[in-house]
Write a structure and sequence with these properties.
Layout: E1 4-6, H1 10-20, E2 22-26, H2 31-54, E3 61-64, H3 67-70, H4 72-77, H5 82-92, E4 94-96, E5 107-109, E6 112-121, E7 156-162, E8 173-175, E9 194-196, E10 203-207, E11 212-213, E12 223-231, H6 247-251, H7 255-260, H8 278-283
Bound molecules: fe (ii) ion (FE2).
Fe (ii) ion (FE2) binds near residues 131, 133 and 212.
Length: about 290
Amino acid sequence: MARRVAFEDIVAVIQSIKEDGGVILTNFSSNEDVERVNADAAPYIQKIVDDCALQSLPRETSRCYRLFGRSRTARESWLQQPAFLEILNHFLRTKTVPYNDNGSTVIETDAILSAAATLDIGPGVKAQDLHRDDFIWQRTHTANGGEGYQMGSDFSMGLLVPGVNTTKANGATLFVPGSHLWDHSRRPKVEDVVAAEMTVGEAFLFLGSTVHAGGANTTSQSRPMHSFFYCRSWMRPEENQHLWWTKDEVQQWSLAAQKQAGYVLDNPFLGHCDETNPVDVVRVDIDSGR
Ligand SMILES: [Fe+2]
């Protein structure tokens, strides 16, 4: 069974993730905020559904990409919660002392957004293959020798917030507790796999090394899942997000959200534009000639 821990109990959440690789967070969101994010994604999902119907194509998984920009509630409320950021950065913060600095400078960088989308699993959609999300960075893992979770071994995490109650029948996320400690070659048995069934307001937070999959939807209703993925600050995010968002959009975001999306840098040498923060470039009026 997937464990449930109160979102605000940060110590217990971190411990559960270290032991299982993922945990269901209770009290992650109000029902009203879930409804708001559902409404933010709905028009984009509906357009895909309508297009499929027009072309007589089977309805599969419909995706609302660009969710970080399209949903103010997700961006500014869910993803800026101090408890969420503390847990996320407990696992994904990178801290180093540069070789050339006599130890007087510490570079400490927090996780950045890698991808964000609503995945709307249509009726009849089959289960995904079990996988580890960090395969996109070609990561592999060696077996943990029984000494428990090694801090620093994960480079990415995922946060899934269901738009409706999820059950085995409608495709609740399948999850293999403890698989974040497994060797790359190990495969789960049927009995290793549990369904992270959630009610609205809960969320599933898991490591990039944890084996999981979207379940099969055997019901007649779709199952929307708002999905957010993070990586370490020095990695290439999964989505080429900066090509999507306009200057006007980014200017409306909070500074914290801009930072999370990589527009404000903790590490002054990685990702700069004209030796300044990318957000400064976004704020400049191109027509001014600068
Ligand atoms: Fe995945």
